Every structure is written in structure tokens, then in C-alpha cells.
Amino acid sequence: MIPRSSRGSSEFHPTCGIFRRPSGGTVRVSAQRNGTTVEIDVADTGPGIAAEDHAAVFEEFKQVGGNTARKAEGTGLGMPLSKRFAELHGGGIRLESTPGKGSTFTFYLPLSPAA
Questions:
Q1: Cβ neighbours, 10 Å, residue 20
Q2: What domain count does the chain have?
Q3: Domain residues for 51?
Q4: pLDDT at 83
Q5: Tens of pLDDT along 75-111?
Q6: pTM of the model as a whole
Q7: Per-residue model confidence as pLDDT tens digits over 53-76
Q8: Residue 2 lies in a domain
Q9: Within a 13 Å sphere around the CA of 80, how many CA atoms are in the beta-carbon half?
Q10: Residue 56 included in any domain
Q11: DSSP of the chain, one letter per residue?
């Protein structure tokens, strides 16, 4: 996710789905069909999330990591609400992350049957 303070100053390259942040990091957005679902990946080159914190990312009002300045930027509702919306549409969200290497959140939603 792009921190609120960086959203207005990020540079987006629509041909490759990459946001370049002033801090030097990137956020890549991509989508692909996987059988009867569509998967949307949002991958960043940020600090990553420790395995023991993965479940907490989806808890309301919970923020993970030791960066207190970043915690002041949000309420801890973004990922729980995203998960809830995906589930309401019959899909879900999964997280893959390695500390020091970034994170990938994959939202998956069922495709409507062909008419």
C-alpha cells in the first residue's frame, strides 16, 4: 500500500503498472485470470512483514512493525476492510512477505459466469 503522505507525490507508469515513490521504493499492481477467479497483486519493495505479524495485518485497528511514525499515518482499518469487501464478493486476500524484501497482497474475486 502507498502511505497516505506519499500518494500525491508518487509517479505512476501506466504501461507497466508501477508506482515509483520519492523514497526510491516501488509498488507494482498487476492482474491476471486464474481459472474461475481474477487475482490482483499489489507488491511493494518496502520493509516487509514478519510471518508472526501476518494475521494481525487483517485485524481491525491493529498495525504491525516497529515504525511509530508510520503507525501515526493510519487507523489500522485499510486491510481489514479490504479483506471484508473481498470476502463479501466471494473472494479473499492473501499475503506473502519477507522482512527486508517487501510484501505482496493478492486480492482474488470470482469471475461472473459467461452469459
A1: 13
A2: 1
A3: 8-109
A4: 92
A5: 778 888 999 999 999 999 999 998 989 999 999 999 9
A6: 0.72
A7: 888 888 877 777 766 545 556 777
A8: no
A9: 14
A10: yes
A11: ---HHHHTT-EEETTTTEEE-TTS-EEEEEEEEETTEEEEEEEE-SS---GGGTGGGGSTT---SS-HHHHTT--S-HHHHHHHHHHHTT-EEEEEEETTTEEEEEEEEEPPPP-
Residue type, 54: H
Name all contacts of 22-31 with Cβ < 8 Å and 24+ positions apart. Answer: 27/1, 27/2
Q: Flag whether 1 is in a domain.
A: no
Q: Look up the CATH number of the domain holding residue 99.
A: 3.30.565.10
Return phi, psi of residue 108, to 5°: -130, 140
The grid coordinates of residue 97 equal 512477505
Going by C-beta distance under 8 Å and a sequence separation of 6 or more, which residues neighbour residue 15? Answer: none
Q: Is residue 93 within 8 Å of 80, Cβ to Cβ?
A: no
Grid coordinates in use for 24?
Answer: 526510491
Q: Would 3 be classed as within a structural domain? A: no
Query: What b/e sequence results for 35-61 when a residue is b if at least 16 CB atoms lie within 10 Å of its CB, and e otherwise?
Result: eeeebbbbbbebbbbeeebeeebeeee
